[in-house]
Design goal:
about 475 residues; 15 strands; eight-stranded parallel β-barrel; TIM Barrel; about 15% strand; globular; binds ligand GBH
């Protein structure tokens, strides 16, 4: 006997029909996203553009770092990357074909201001003008990130993020970009992943996954002490706040702006009030230096107490600037920072150690925990209540071998996306105001120190020939975008 499914009829998928034998021709319960949900793809300048030394571009800290022996896997660099600077038209066609409605790219600061400040370079600007025009022509909304880690080397030479002036220079550059692009670009992200570029770039971090230590470092590869590190964090959020003000001053009235933070999420071990409360407390504390101060205008007592004499030096005026009102919060969501349960201790929560057999995706650091795509936006909503939320990155690396028929059957990535997007859909169904999701990444690219071996794309790139081949996951993405649902 065929099973007669007792599932809600799909009201949104008009031509769903059940046949006499009760077989299901398409799922009657496709979990839909809200109308207008943005189906986005994401990339970043240094990871894809190449043309590292053309048309007036200045050096960035990633040009320096990637050419420092021993820093990059296989000595890979972004000199050529996936040659997107020259192939952007073809790449936009591919994304259009995939049904993407949004594209999150980043602007290389040193293409615009080769020395970080001073006179703008018209050829660098011209590239982003052409990119934006081409996206609009393809019906894809452009979302511009102003800083995805490629600080102009000239500013690093003057102290980089340890120098307060860098925040000011960033704001000037942000204002300039808003002035130039906001007639067409309606959404700007200020800085990408504050926690990661601050900590991985200025100290290096160690994680333990499945019992193995994983070291992660980013440019400029410094080893700062606690006070200096907290000061770098402060300058990063100050840069964000000042840039929000500059964008408001220089951009068109309807320009929207917010950060793109790798929010550190404490996931409750179960959905019961006491554990959820513990997770909120933990999550707020884990983001004290970044989202919390940006959204509340205060460094929390628990952070200042923990930092003690190593707390950053700051003024009330700076706090006010840092908390300049924003239109949305962007969060990159890959992994929980920790699992959390309620506790009688002073903080109210305790970390639950992850089991050594907890599954992971292919990257050494990537714990498989799709439920974080539910909890990160839900907790962002309940703790800080921003007007809107974007998932600015979400995705995974995979081995992606070419099969004999020329296709790439990345079933693990499709599994990942189905689970993660299903969890995200649940958050939207409960009313968490998530406006869109950007899969990391549109194309295979330079995974920073991980080099070209770690592929995150929905589109495969042969790094020798630059041939692009959409993977199975690209087909999945297209169907999902078309149905506005998890397929
Ligand atoms: C985010 O970085 C970034 O925003 C994005 O640029 C990046 O490509 C994406 O997520 C995926 O990582 O363990 O050898 O693979 C998150 C921080 C930076 C951590 C690169 C892993 C590579 C080291 N990631 N890093 S390796």
């Amino acid at each position: 006997m065929p099973i007669n499914p007792v599932l809600p009829r799909n009201t949104l998928d008009a031509n769903t029909s059940q046949q006499d034998d009760n077989s299901i021709t398409s799922a009657p319960s496709l979990p839909k996203f809200p109308d207008g949900f943005c189906w986005g793809l994401a990339t970043a300048s240094y990871q894809i553009e190449g043309s590292a030394n053309v048309e007036g571009k200045g050096k960035s800290i990633w040009d320096t770092y990637s050419h420092t022996p021993g820093k990059m896997k296989n000595n890979d660099t972004g000199d050529v990357a996936i040659d997107h600077y020259r192939r952007y038209k073809e790449d936009i066609q591919i994304m259009k074909e995939m049904g993407a409605t949004g594209y999150r790219f980043s602007i290389a600061w040193s293409r615009i201001f080769p020395n970080g400040t001073g006179v703008a370079n018209p050829k660098g600007l011209d590239f982003y003008n052409r990119l934006v025009d081409e996206l609009l022509k393809a019906g894809i909304q452009p979302f511009a990130t102003l800083y995805h880690w490629d600080l102009p080397q000239a500013l690093q030479d003057k102290g980089g993020w340890q120098a307060r002036e860098t925040s000011q220079y960033f704001a000037e550059y942000a204002g300039y970009m808003a002035e130039q692009l906001s007639d067409r670009v309606k959404h700007f992200f200020t800085l990408n992943e504050f926690q990661n570029f601050v900590d991985m770039g200025h100290r290096g971090i160690e994680m333990v996954v499945q019992g193995k230590p994983v070291q992660i470092e980013l440019a400029p590869g410094l080893k700062l002490d606690n006070q200096a590190l907290n000061q770098v964090a402060h300058h990063a959020v100050l840069a964000h706040g000042l840039s929000v003000q500059a964008i408001r001053a220089m951009g068109k009235k309807d320009t929207k702006v917010g950060p793109a933070e790798v929010m550190f999420c404490g996931v409750p071990v179960m959905d019961t009030p006491e554990h959820v409360k513990a997770a909120e407390t933990a999550t707020r504390h884990l983001n004290a230096r970044f989202l919390d101060v940006m959204l509340t205008g205060k460094y929390s007592d628990s952070y200042l107490k923990e930092a003690g004499k190593d707390a950053p030096k700051f003024t009330e005026d700076e706090l006010q600037a840092i908390a300049s009102p924003i239109d949305f919060v962007g969060i990159n969501v890959y992994i929980p920072k920790m699992y959390v349960m309620a506790s009688e201790n002073e903080s109210g929560y305790s970390e639950v150690p992850m089991s050594i057999s907890h599954p992971k995706m292919s990257s050494p650091w990537h714990t498989f925990s799709p439920e974080v795509l539910y909890w990160a936006p839900r907790l962002t909503h309940s703790i800080w209540n921003p007007k809107a939320i974007y998932i600015t990155e979400n995705g995974c690396a995979a081995n992606d071998e070419l099969s004999t028929d020329g296709n790439i059957y990345d079933t693990d990535r499709v599994m990942y996306l189905r689970n993660a997007m299903g969890q995200l859909q649940r958050a939207t169904a409960e009313g968490v105001p998530v406006k869109g999701n950007f899969v990391w990444s549109a194309f295979d690219n330079l995974e920073w120190t991980g080099g070209f071996g770690t592929r995150f794309g929905l589109v495969h790139v042969d790094f020798e020939t630059q041939k692009r081949t959409p993977k199975l996951s690209a087909k999945w993405f297209k169907e999902a975008a078309q149905h506005n649902a998890v397929v």
